[in-house]
Amino acid sequence: MSLPTKRSASASATATATTGTASTSASNNFLPMKKAKSQAASTCSPLDHNKNGLHHSEDVVFDPSSMSLDDDPKLVDYRTPPATANLSRKKATPPQPAKKLVIKLVKAKPTLPTNFEEDTWAKLQSAINAIFLKQPAPCDLEKLYQAVNDLCLHKMGGSLYMRIEKECEAHISAALQALVGQSPDLVVFLKLVEECWHDLCDQMLMIRSIALYLDRTYVKQTPTARSLWDMGLQLFRKHLSLSPEVEHKTVTGLLRMIERERLGETVNRKPLGHLLKMFTSLGIYAESFEIPFLECTSEFYAAEGMAYMQQSDVPDYLKHVESRLNEEQDRCKIYLDTSTKKPLIATAERQLLERHISAILDKGFMMLMDGHRIEDLKRIYSLFLRVNALESLRQALSMYIRRTGQGLVMDEEKDKDMVSSLLEFKASLDSIWEESFSKNEGFCITIKDAFEHLINLRQVCLSLCWFDLNWLQY
Fold first, then answer.
1. Residue 235: C-alpha distances to residues 152, 231, 302, 366 (Å)
2. Alpha helices in 154-290 (DSSP H)
C-alpha cells in the first residue's frame, strides 16, 4: 500500500475543510458537475495506476457534493432561482384555482291549470260582449291583454282567433238586422246606418287593442288569417250583402241627397262623406255606389241640358255649364272618392256640352263675335277645349269670317270704305285671337285662309296699290 502523496494530502485537507459546507451547498440543489469532475480527476491522478481503478482504503475520495458553489466566483449566478425551484430547470407553472362544482337543477315543466283555455276565453268573451253592448269592461284591460298573451304563448292563438271571429260575427249580424224595417225617411235612415258604422269601427279598434299580441303573432304567421280590423270589415260587408234592403236604402238615400243638393237645397254633407268612406273601406264603392251614381248623374244632366238650351241664351248656358262642372269637382274633393272624379266630370261634359256643340255654335257664336264678347268667347273656347271640340269652333270661325268679310268686299257702294272696314275687321279678329283663343296656331291659320279667300273675291278692287298684304302676317 502506497503512502499518500503531498498532493493527495493537500486534497484531503481541502476535503476536510469543505466538509462543513457540504451540507449547506447541497441545499442549493445545483451540482457544479464540470468543475467537480475536473478537480476529482486532478486530485486522484496518482491513483490512476491502479488497474482496477480502486482507491486505497486510506486515500481520500473526492465527493462532488461536498464542494460549495461559492468556491469558484466564476460560477456565481445572481439569477439563481430559490432553493425550492424545480431541479429539471423547467418553468414553474402558477397554481391553478380549484374548479367549482356547479349543480344544475332540472326544473319541472309547468303544467297549465285545468280548463285554462276555457276559463281564459270566458273572461275575454265577457269583455267582447261588453264592448259590443257599450257596457263597462268586466275587468281591467291590462289583464285582458295579458290573458290574450298567455293563450298565444301556449299555442292557442288559432283557437282564440276563431272564437273572436265567431263572437264578432254574431254581434255585427244582429246590428245590421236591427236596421231592417227602420224609418222610411231616408235622411233618418242614413243617420242610423252612420251610427252603426261608427260603432263597429270603435268596437273593432277596442278589440284589436286587447288582442294586439294575437294580431302581431298568430295573424302574421298565418297567411290565410286577416287582421282583426280587416276581419271586422269583412264580416260587416258579408252581412250587409245579406241584408239587401239595408244596402239599397242606403244607396238610394245617398243618391237622393246628392240630387237635392244639385237642385239647390242645403244638405248635411257630413253623413254623406262618412257613408261613402264606409263603402270605400268595405271595398264595394264602385259596384254598389259609383255605377248607379254615374247613371243618375247622366240622366240628371241630360234633362237639364235640354231644358236650359231651350230656355237660355248661349252666354248664360255657358256660364251654367261652367258652374256645374265646378260643383262636381267640389263634390269630388269633399265627399266623393277620388276615383269618381274623372268619370263624373266626363259624364257632365258629355251631357251638357258634347250633345249641344252644334246648337251652341248655331245659336250664339255669330252673336258673340259681332258683339266682340271677349269673356264669353274665352269661356266657349275653354269649354270646347275640354271636350275636344276646337275643330268645330275653328270651322265656325272660318265661316263667320267669310260671311262677314264677303259682305264688306262685295258691296260696291262701300268700295271707298272697304279697305278701312277690312282693317277694322282684322283688328277685331286679332284681339279675339289673342285674348279669347289663347293665340292658338290653328285659329291663326284659319283667319289667314279666310282672308285670302276674301281677297280672291275682288282681285281687281283689292290691288296692291290699294291694299298692303303685310297685315296678313302674324
1. 23, 6, 39, 62
2. 157-177, 186-210, 212-216, 218-221, 228-241, 244-262, 269-282
Global confidence as pTM: 0.71
CA–CA separation, 356 vs 377, rounded Å?
Answer: 16
Instruction: Report domain extents, the chain.
Output: 6-75, 118-242, 368-474
Over the stretch 104-137, which tens digit does the pLDDT of each residue have? Answer: 766 666 677 888 999 999 999 999 999 999 999 8
- Sole residue written with cell 292557442: 156
Alpha helices, DSSP H, located in 53-140: 116-132
Rounded-to-integer distance, Cα 61 and Cα 473, Å: 147
Q: CB pairs under 8 A, 24+ apart, for 295-301?
A: 296/255, 296/258, 296/259, 297/344, 297/347, 297/348, 298/347, 298/350, 298/351, 300/259, 300/262, 301/347, 301/348, 301/351, 301/352
Tell which CATH classification among 1.20.1310.10, 2.60.40.10, 3.40.50.720, 1.20.58.760 matches the domain 118-242: 1.20.1310.10
